Amino acid sequence: MIKPTAMNRFTNHIFKNYAKDSGKLLVHVGTGVTVIGASAQVGMLLADKQIEGHTKKFLVNQEIITSGACIALYYSICEGVRRGVNKILESGKLLTQNAASYISSVNTENTDSKPENWKNVFTKDEMKKGLSYNLEHITESKVYKNTKNELKSQTLEMSKRAAEVFHNYKNGVSVLAVLAASVFAGNIAGPVIGNILASLPAKQDCKKS
What we know:
Elements lengths: L5 H13 L3 H26 L5 H38 L6 H8 L19 H4 L3 H6 L5 H4 L3 H60 L1
Helix pairs in contact: 2-3, 2-8, 3-8, 4-8
């Protein structure tokens, strides 16, 4: 028996956490890069021997405040957008016709698989769990239990296809939403709030002098 290596465990962990949600990966990688960049800036200031003690302390404090604000804003905005978009997508409010058609076809008892008929596949209570859960656990659904035995295998196959189409669509939308949020957080919200907070040490310095 082959023992799992540290690399295998790491790759399995990455796949398990991010395979079905590329937006989450983008948020975490973006936040990590922001943290590394901020740490490098602080490190450069600390290592610069040409800057005098008081000035260095002031600049380091200013950089820490600015970087902390940028990191917090980046993560909170991007993660908030990701969760919000995913919640909307899971409710079916932003389905494409293609995705809706696949979900509609899960109800094999109904031969008319028009996109708008996807709303009749799962009950309101089932939809509280989201489309991903319902498609992946189709055997728990009312539509599967009410399906004739000879059509159950077809229902399982159609739910598998619908889940794949929906996950691909959800991942694409999630990535685009997080990219837009990261541009806003990194280039507008972060710098503006960071500059406001960074001016606080200067104001305190002026009061002391």
